[in-house]
Amino acid sequence: MNIEYSHKEAFVFKKIAAAAAEIGVPAYIIGGFVRDKILGRPTKDADIVCVGDGIALAHAVAKRFQPEPTVAFFKHFGTAQIKIDDWEIEFVGARKESYRHESRNPEVEPGTIEDDQNRRDFTINAMAISLNQADYGTLIDPFNGLVDLSNKLIQTPLDPLTTFSDDPLRMMRAIRFASQLQFTIAPVTLQAIQDNAHRIKIITQERITDEFNKILLSKKPSVGLDLLYKTGLMKLIFPAMVDLAGAEYIDGHGHKDNFYHTLQVVDNIAPTTNDLWLRWAALLHDIGKPATKRFENGHGWTFHGHEVVGGRMVPKIFTKWRLSLHEPMRFVRKMVELHLRPISLTKENITDSAIRRLLFDAGEDIENLMLLCEADITSKNKQKVKRYLENFELVRQRLKEVEEKDKIRNWQPPITGELIMEVFGLPPSKPVGDLKTRIREAILDGIISNDYDAAYQYMLEQAASMGLEKRN
Ligand code: CTP
Question: Which of 121, 124, 171 to mutate to test the pocket of ligand 1 (most atoms within 8 A of CB)?
């Protein structure tokens, strides 16, 4: 196996090899770095496993660099880390029992390199490259990970029951790798995931979220999302998504399966953005549909208000998933709430004021909203898709024209609440808000022009009609 290292990698691995020889511990590169190198994917951090004390090896390695990097170590877990520029290198001693990174009970026996490989998650992640003098650079691949890489297959080195009971998060990792690498999960491994899905309950939300986000960020997220669904994991980690699944029929009227529609929307948006939150928005855009579903005689199925109900669900979902509650939550909620608005603007005779309103409500996020709406077209009829896309193109043009004319996107109305309070001698109160809203609405509707004098005049008129008197 001829693996091409960069200059830096070759230089650092030689130093690790020399340090390992010096303190007499055999050392190996292992795991994701080896897998990604062979696949020709960009590599991230490197994991080094040694038959001995990983922390001692890290110290011996650090001494060989000028300036000497700091060794961050966790005695309890027997792991250490050094950073060479931005590159993180992790050191750990080979273990015999389970490979449990975050276990509360990491008292595992030291073992050989084979013991350590046995306890890794998948054959493609269990390959090691020797850093030892006798066989420097040799690939040690006891489970034919190389063959599985070329067959694009994910399977566990041992009986999957053993591998998954060591760490049930590995069930999600299998699905994450299937989605990221576009690999297949071996039938026995897949069956074991189905049988043991319930064990995901013992895993912390943070670790689940981390894997889920990686699935969402993969090239074709539907691969992973569908596997989560079919193995029963989705029902356990995200029941609201599963509520979208299925189509109901009454009097021969059915509706589309909103789960598979959603997966298609996420796939559609994937080539246009690597922004995690826009992908979350695609995932959640119809999340309010099950709660709003009605069958109306003469109309068929309706989901009135699903964007409002869905928007309200976003903060709860973000809390449960331990996602950021600030800017990303606000953004995703806004996308869910507004996702039907551009469609309503594809009708004929749309006024400037309707366009202005959308610009005002979407603000800086207007482009992302348009991307979401375009991704939301999942018809199988090519003619229809073409027509819908053309309609959205017209909306984009109108948005551009109105924005150029009115600059409404980042607009703040010219009359502030402070000014209203000052002019009418009011404390912060409802009439102040009402008056502000009236002025803003009049500008958005084009009743008055967007300038201070017109707005001031309008304020005086409206205030008079509300019985407010100007302070002298
Ligand atoms: N590993 C494992 N079981 C886990 C997590 C990790 O056996 N639950 C092992 C695998 O050998 C894996 C290595 O630890 O390759 C490093 O784990 P990690 O850095 O989480 O994943 P990578 O495989 O490096 O992949 P990525 O960087 O894409 O997360």
Answer: 121
